[in-house]
Design goal:
By secondary structure, this protein is an alpha+beta fold. It contains 4 helices and 3 strands; from the N terminus they run E-H-E-E-H-H-H.
């Protein structure tokens, strides 16, 4: 995170089941289905103080991710770094960069 200007900032990482990610997706995005990853920015005003240096949270549905890896013959060790990068891009507000990363990954497959 140092290269992004967010050195020493925190990101919460939560591993959840498909039911929980579907609930989050329905509640916050209006999409009633499971997905692999959701990112949620912290909506509170940020002071930059040590106890307030949190960019947000990433929720990863491991059962969904594992099933998707099996269906596409992907290794989990290859997929997780892509998903983490995608989630971090969303937390930093770089939505187009995040989508571009995923598109390049799928083209390489």
């Amino acid at each position: 995170m140092q290269c992004s200007g967010y050195r020493d900032w925190d990101i919460g990482v939560h591993f959840v089941d498909n039911a929980r990610i579907q609930e989050l997706n329905r509640t916050y995005r209006g999409k009633d289905r499971a997905t692999d990853i959701l990112s949620a920015e912290v909506d509170l005003p940020r002071t930059g103080k040590e106890d307030d240096m949190n960019l947000g949270d990433m929720f990863l549905a491991m059962p969904y991710i594992l099933k998707d890896c099996r269906q596409h013959n992907d290794a989990l060790g290859e997929r997780l770094p892509i998903l983490f990068t995608h989630g971090i891009c969303h937390l930093l507000g770089c939505l187009s960069a995040s989508d571009e990363i995923l598109q390049k990954y799928h083209r390489l497959k």
